[in-house]
Specification:
Number of strands: 0
Radius of gyration: 22 Å
Distance between the termini: 46 Å
Largest sheet: none
Helix content: 25-40%
Structural class: mainly alpha
Length: 97
């Protein structure tokens, strides 16, 4: 399996033409496209490869602070089944019987 990263400016036509490198052998391949909007260069992280960016780290701190506030207020933490049940309830779905 090969991973190719291509930076490309998308214009209003949204056309994308890719010429693959010679290292890609002819034949049937599964090709996945991930749209990852890039931030302006001044806010782009200096390092990559799984290192959290400052924006992401700040968001996690905010979420953890909210979690601590909820726990302090006595709000119960839900497991996946509890989350699923609450979503169904808020959507007005019928209860499972």
């Amino acid at each position: 399996m090969q991973t190719l990263t291509i930076d490309y400016d998308i214009d209003s036509s949204r056309d994308l033409v890719v010429k693959l490198p010679a290292s890609v052998a002819p034949g049937r391949h599964r090709i996945e496209i991930v749209i990852d909007p890039q931030r302006p260069k001044e806010s782009a992280p200096a390092a990559a490869g799984g290192v959290e960016t400052p924006d992401r780290a700040a968001r996690w701190r905010e979420l953890l602070a909210l979690r601590e506030q909820a726990i302090a207020a006595g709000m119960p933490l839900l497991d996946w089944d509890g989350i699923d049940a609450e979503v169904r309830e808020r959507r007005g779905d019928l209860a499972d019987d």
